[in-house]
Amino acid sequence: MTALLEVEDLTVRFYTEEGVVTAVDGLSYRIEAGETFGVVGESGAGKSVAALSVLGLIDDPGRIERGEVRFKGEDLRSMTDAELRSVRGDEIAMVFQDARAALNPVYTVGEQIAETIEHHMGYDPAAARDRAVRLLDRVGIPEAGTRYSDYPHEFSGGMCQRATVAMALSCEPDLIVADEPTTALDVTVEARVLDLLADLADEFDVAVQLITHDLGVIAGTCDRAMVMYAGEAVERAPIEELYYDPKHPYTAGLMSAIPHVGDDRDRLQTIPGTMPDLIDVPSGCRFHPRCPFAEEACTRTDPALVDPENGEAATLETERAAACLEYTEGLTGGLDYSVEVDGETNERAEDDDGGEDDDGREDEGEEGGSDE
Ligand SMILES: Nc1ncnc2c1ncn2[C@@H]1O[C@H](COP(=O)(O)OP(=O)(O)OP(=O)(O)O)[C@@H](O)[C@H]1O
């Protein structure tokens, strides 16, 4: 079965004066029809470049060097610009971080949506207006009929983002690519917009590629996710598995950096160090300079994305995949971390060479039952 979107071995470089930036390196993933797929990683991981490549929007110093992008089984990379534009207008829609900038300040919000509907769906002006009002209402704009005639500057940030979601839905696309759609919003508005996106994805049966630097954002929204680091996928998994049992130390690091309500937003600093310069990436595993479990082998061998159960190379169909030498060569010290989810600590299920149970066996204390 072909998935809605299949990206295979995608490699994108930018030829800059400072050098060649390999922004995306051998990236593979698939998105099934109707599912919400998260792409997570710190700034500079290559998330946006990967998405823009799918949309055929990589410009001049940039070049797609390698790889395939198939949408509904059709090779997007062999399409003409005109064909691509029509796919972008009709079948793949985009929602960006800066919603206000995505709206044209000189037209009313409603006009812009109606114009898109007329243009792409062939509606007459009255029908297009009608549909635009209904969509504005559906995304939660109060008094949509009146607010139709507001200009973008008369909308709050959250309302602008709702309006761009309405715009994205207006042509009944099969895929919405949402790049940090809620980063500019405050936490409560963010939560509402994410809920809306998830509800609409369900209701309109549209797939979403949700790009974010915040693993917390995808937790309640996505079905599956991919974690990117320095241009590569380091882990792919169904969301609960990613959350409760991260297989890659970078994912585990992101987990411990999830902001809780009331926290500062940018807490990813809890993983010491920064993303490497993509002109000159570290040898071996790109994450090794920041990885608390790195061993000598990690400085030499670039780990392939494999099924952590058996170490076999991951294909597009592999549900659970991670790129760490632990799952192929085996690290002498193993991966020794635990993650805390909703106040519960999840130890990695390691059966390390016996013993070491010397600090009492707390794992028997069930009698009292855990009251909340
Ligand atoms: N037009 C460009 N010219 C040169 N380098 C670029 C260009 N666009 C992106 N890059 C480089 O590609 C790399 C990946 O960038 P990208 O924007 O995809 O990261 P990201 O994970 O989406 O981060 P962010 O959340 O900050 O957008 C970065 O090192 C960036 O500097």
UniProtKB/TrEMBL annotation:
InterPro entries hit by this protein: AAA+_ATPase, ABC_Ni/Peptide_Import, ABC_transporter-like_ATP-bd, ABC_transporter-like_CS, Oligopep_ABC_C, P-loop_NTPase
Record-level GO BP terms: peptide transport
Keywords recorded for this protein, A-Z: ATP-binding, Cell membrane, Membrane, Nucleotide-binding, Transport
Signal peptide: none
One Gene Ontology term of the molecular function aspect: ATP hydrolysis activity
SUPFAM superfamilies per the UniProt record, alphabetical: P-loop containing nucleoside triphosphate hydrolases (SSF52540)
Pfam name, any one: oligo_HPY
Residue spans of biased composition, Acidic residues class: 339-372
Subcellular location: Cell membrane
Main location: membrane
Annotated ranges, domain ABC transporter: 5-255
Gene Ontology CC: one annotated term: plasma membrane
Membrane topology: Peripheral membrane protein
Region (Disordered): 335-372
Protein name: Peptide/nickel transport system ATP-binding protein
UniProt organism field: Halorubrum aquaticum
